[in-house]
Amino acid sequence: MSASVANDSRGDQPAEAPMALTGERTVPGIPEENYWFRRHEVVYRRLLDHCRGRVVLEAGCGEGYGADLIADVAQAVIGLDYDESAVAHVRARYPRVDMRHGNLAQLPLDDASVDVVVNFQVIEHLWDQGQFVAECRRVLRPGGLLLMSTPNRITFSPGRDTPVNPFHTRELNAAELTELLESAGLQMQSMLGVFHGERLAQLDARHGGSIIDAQIARALTDAPWPADLLADIVSVDVDDFDLVESGGQDRRDSRDIDDSLDLVAIAVRP
C-alpha cells in the first residue's frame, strides 16, 4: 500500500486530516515517514492474534491507527493518551476505539479489568517507567498479557549516554527491559527483535550501508528528498521486516537480540 493513502476504517466517509508530524510519534499517510510507520505497524500486525476476542487497552495510542487495527479482532479496545489533541483525533477518525484521556502513571481503569495491555514505542518516553509497568500489572486480569515494544538502546542510540531522540527519556536494551517487567511482578513469555529483512538489507546497501542513516542525513537539511531515496522509502512494507524470537532454533532466529532495531516483549501477569 502506498504511504500517500492512509487506512480509513470508516468505509466511504472522508478521512480526517492527518496529525501533525512532530517527531514524537509516527503518523500514517506521509511518504517521508513511511519507513518508521511500517517499522511500527509490523509489530501490531504480527502480535494481533494475542488480542483476538479480548478486552484490550492500548496505553499511549498516539494517532490511533494501531488501536483501530486491534479493533478488527478484539472484543473491545480502549485507547488512552495524555495528549488531548491525540484523544480528539482518535475519537473523530477511529470511532471503534473507546478513546480516553489520562495519565499512564495512573491508569484510569479498575483493577483486573482488561485482558491485554498494548504499549508500543511509548515506554522510552516515560519518566517513571516502573510506575507505569506496575499500573499495567494492576489493570491486567490474571493470565493477561502485556505487549510492549521499544527502540533497542544499543542500536538506536549507540555509544551515547542520553537518547538521540529528544522526546525519549530512557531507552532500554533487552536485559534492562526484562528487568523492568519482572521487577513489577510480570513473567516474561517472549523477547523478540525487529530486524531488516532481505529487501531492506538490499536498500541499506543501495543507500551507503544504512537507509536509516540516509533518512537522518536528509532530515538534517532543507534540500528536497532525492527521488530514489523517497521512492525506496515509500515502497517499504511490513513484510520487509523480520520479527525474531531471542534464542530461537531456526537459522534466521539465530540473530543476536542486541543487534535488533526494536525490542518486543510479551509478558504475562501470573
Q: How would you characterize this protein structure?
A:
With 270 residues, this protein is of the alpha/beta class. 30% of the residues lie in helices and 21% in strands. It contains 9 helices and 8 strands. The protein has helices at 34-46, 65-71, 84-93, 129-139, 153-156, 174-183, 198-206, 211-219, 227-235, and strands spanning 55-59, 76-81, 98-101, 114-120, 140-151, 187-196, 241-245, 262-268. The protein has an 8-stranded mixed beta sheet with strand order 3-2-1-4-5-8-6-7. Strand 1 (55-59), helix 2 and strand 2 form a beta-alpha-beta unit. The longest helix has 13 residues, at 34-46. The radius of gyration is 18 Å and the shape is globular. The protein starts with 33 loop residues before the first helix and ends with a strand. Mean pLDDT is 89; it is low at 1-14.
SSE map:
Elements: H1 34-46, E1 55-59, H2 65-71, E2 76-81, H3 84-93, E3 98-101, E4 114-120, H4 129-139, E5 140-151, H5 153-156, H6 174-183, E6 187-196, H7 198-206, H8 211-219, H9 227-235, E7 241-245, E8 262-268
